[in-house]
Description:
The chain is mainly α. Helix content is 57%, strand content 11%. It has helices at 5-17, 30-46, 52-72, 77-82, 84-98; strands at 102-108, 112-118. Strand 1 (102-108) and strand 2 form a beta hairpin. The chain is globular, with a radius of gyration of 16 Å. The model has no long low-confidence stretch (mean pLDDT 84).
Amino acid sequence: MEDFSAIKEVLERWKVSGELELRKLTGLNINSWRDYFKQEITEIESLLDSAVEDAHERLAALLSFAVVVARVRPFIAAPLLRYFSDIKGLIHKLAVNLGVSDTEVTIGFPFTIEMTFSIPTSKPSK
């Protein structure tokens, strides 16, 4: 498996500062992104039983980052969409673990992803 340190470094800096260092991603091709997304989805899924909030945060960051990068490097949308079924399943599992009643995923073009969770509120008991 490939070393994804460049993607992870750019992602972490982007999460903290909002700065996107695209030059560090220059050498990555579509297969690199495909492998990275597959690895991230697998790692996020492994967090579902033990740290569901961390899994949710990590998935939201991954999808947001992918959208931002895809605006300037549109080719990365294709490898992410390759795993749409896996992402959809992951979102469903997150919803179940978080007690969410309904979820919706919207993908738009130019490339955008929106996750919506409907969280039921209960009335306090008397």
